[in-house]
TrEMBL record:
NCBIfam families: maleylpyruvate isomerase family mycothiol-dependent enzyme (TIGR03083), TIGR03086 family metal-binding protein (TIGR03086)
Residue ranges annotated for the Mycothiol-dependent maleylpyruvate isomerase metal-binding domain, each copy included: 13-136
Ranges in a coiled coil: none
Protein name: TIGR03086 family protein
Organism of provenance: Actinomadura graeca
InterPro entries: CHP03086, DinB/YfiT-like, Maleyloyr_isom, MDMPI_metal-binding
SUPFAM superfamilies recorded: DinB/YfiT-like putative metalloenzymes (SSF109854)
Pfam families in the record: MDMPI_N
Highest rank taxon of the organism: Bacteria
């Protein structure tokens, strides 16, 4: 039997682990620190990222989505943030574990609301991994993005991000010069790879 936190999609499992690790390594007292998501602090990014993962699960299963608006996070989590995050990651992974890799499309919570399975799993992974980067940068931790992960995510990003920019889901791309794979992904998503708090 597959572990509840394993989706069977390597890119998504890698991204989930990056997000899980980033949250686990937030220092005490850092939950209100600023992040590369300029409107949100660390707690709000955690809430947003967790809610997005549950929204991907709900799109697939028809089950309940987050009981809050991931795009208007409160900045308050009762109890341990890792314990808040984990069931939403597990629900997302369990949902993706049911998806046939050869299916034509799979429901997703982002326009156009149905994507080929590889792209859909990548979309969920992109959200988790980039917010893991946001949290890590905000708290002075090493980047969780590797070159291999960034290359795979950039391929997905180029398939889904442009229409989402109009909704404010991603900022406009930033020009980069001589980018490595991680910087190329971050620049495409409108993030400065050298961001510091």
């Amino acid at each position: 039997m597959m572990d509840a936190t394993t989706s069977g999609w390597n890119v998504l499992d890698t991204a989930h682990e990056a997000l899980r690790t980033a949250v686990r390594e937030v220092p005490a007292g850092a939950w209100t620190w600023p992040t590369p998501c300029t409107e949100w602090d660390v707690t709000q990014v955690v809430q947003h990222a967790a809610g997005d993962q549950l929204a991907f699960a709900a799109a697939i299963t028809g089950g309940p989505g987050p009981g809050f608006d991931p795009f208007a996070p409160s900045g308050t989590i009762d109890g341990d943030p890792g314990a808040f995050l984990e069931p939403m990651l597990a629900a997302c992974a369990a949902a993706w574990a049911t998806v046939d890799k050869d299916a034509g499309t799979v429901p997703v919570p982002v326009p156009p609301n149905a994507l080929p399975p590889r792209v859909g799993a990548g979309a969920a992974a992109l959200d988790a991994a980039v917010h893991a980067w946001d949290i890590a940068m905000a708290t002075g931790r090493p980047s969780p993005l590797t070159g291999d992960l960034a290359r795979e995510l950039l391929t997905v990003a180029k398939e889904i991000v442009e229409p989402l920019r109009q909704y404010g889901a991603y900022a406009d791309a930033i020009e980069g010069d001589g980018d490595d794979d991680v910087a190329a992904l971050l620049h495409y998503l409108g993030r400065d790879p050298r961001w510091t708090a």
